Amino acid sequence: MQHLFAFFHSSSDASIQVHSQEQEVAIALGSNVGDRLNNFNKASRQMKKSGTGINVRRHACLYETEPTYVTDQPCFLNSAIRVVTKLSPHELLLVLKEIEKEMG
């Protein structure tokens, strides 16, 4: 099981509209399958090149945690990033879910 973005599920049939005011947003990231570090790097690159104006500003330290609830899976590598975007929270979620889907 791989989790890249800590958000709730949302429908992907909404259109994306860029708003005029930039907002600073923190996004929690986690991965526990494959090359976990590469998953972080790839997700960050995908956000930067998504063409939707997600500008990654800072990365937090990486840390490893034991899985909770479903414990028969690998440990998670976790972090957070700070981005600046003009997207609304819902629109940002749609973009992040699409990146997560593309990454498998």
How would you portray this structure in words?
With 104 residues, this protein is of the alpha+beta class. It has one domain: Alpha-Beta Plaits (2-Layer Sandwich), CATH 3.30.70. 27% of the residues lie in helices and 33% in strands. The chain is built from 2 helices and 4 strands. Strands 1, 2, 3 and 4 form a 4-stranded antiparallel sheet that branches. Helix 1 packs across helix 2. The longest helix is centred in the last third of the chain and has 15 residues, at 89-103. It is elongated. It starts with 17 loop residues before the first strand and ends with a helix. Mean pLDDT is 82; it is low at 5-12.
Please, what is the CATH homologous superfamily?
7,8-Dihydro-6-hydroxymethylpterin-pyrophosphokinase HPPK
| Class of secondary structure makeup | alpha+beta
Helix run count: 2
Query: How would the global form be characterised?
Result: elongated
Largest β sheet strand count, sense and barrel closure:
4 strands, antiparallel
In CATH terms, what is the fold-level topology?
A: Alpha-Beta Plaits
Q: Quickly give the CATH architecture.
A: 2-Layer Sandwich
InterPro entries: DHP_synth-like, Hppk, Hppk_sf
GO biological process, one term: tetrahydrofolate biosynthetic process
Pathway: Cofactor biosynthesis; tetrahydrofolate biosynthesis; 2-amino-4-hydroxy-6-hydroxymethyl-7,8-dihydropteridine diphosphate from 7,8-dihydroneopterin triphosphate: step 4/4
Keywords: ATP-binding, Folate biosynthesis, Kinase, Nucleotide-binding, Transferase
